[in-house]
């Protein structure tokens, strides 16, 4: 905590937000700062009738390093419609998340789905497509924009990894595939328990960390979700 004139800077070090230090300017110094952990329940929500759920997940063993990704399209009943796994070879985690979105959207378009709930476990990639002020400097981002601008509705949002168990599994499985994309028309052996758990809405706990600042009587809550 640093006091600058009438302003007070509170620094948080640790695994918040994008893993960087967060800074909060407050006109008044907090009397106390506490970290509070809260247990949330996350589970797979059925897409609305007429929509499909496209889940994506990229995985990498370093930055940059060997990376894989998995994607899966399910209907409102939680049934497997189409999926894929890809071994991307050497690539950064950010590129892995982009590749999986690209392949997933290509697959959904190929199957003719017109309403797609796209879930991504990287908040940064979601911001790349929802925040128009980012300069587009990457060919893959441009290719995804081209897909998004076609005649269909795609809603993209960020989800926690815990509600992404199936694609997490697919991404891990893809380390044993040859480099390239492999399309799966039906569930892979070994995934049925996870698919079933999702289809009946089994929840998994997730610990979220809140930073709580107390200013005299008024508590001020900053929620920082771990990505
Ligand atoms: C879609 O899939 C993601 C990831 O598996 C899940 O978190 C979400 O609840 C599902 N449903 C909707 C409506 O997005
Ligand atoms: C993606 O988002 C990150 C963080 O929000 C930003 O720094 C980066 O420039 C964006 N990249 C592209 C290609 O839009
Ligand atoms: C969009 O990106 C700009 C520049 O990176 C950033 O200043 C702004 O806060 C972002 N907006 C949202 C809604 O994330
Ligand atoms: C990833 O796959 C390997 C086998 O290929 C397995 O031993 C490991 O437990 C898996 N990890 C996760 C998180 O599923």
TrEMBL record:
Secretion signal span: 1-19
Domain RNase H type-1: start-end pairs: 48-176
Entry coiled-coil feature ranges: none
The UniProt record lists the keyword Glycoprotein: no
InterPro entries: RNase_H-like, RNase_H-like_dom_plant, RNaseH-like_sf, RNaseH_domain, RNaseH_sf
Gene3D superfamilies, A to Z: Ribonuclease H-like superfamily/Ribonuclease H
Pfam families, per the entry: RVT_3
GO terms of molecular function: nucleic acid binding; RNA-DNA hybrid ribonuclease activity
UniProt cross-references to CDD domains, sorted A to Z: RNase_H_like
Signal among keywords: yes
Keywords: Signal
Listed name of the protein: RNase H type-1 domain-containing protein
Lineage, opening ranks: Eukaryota, Viridiplantae, Streptophyta, Embryophyta, Tracheophyta
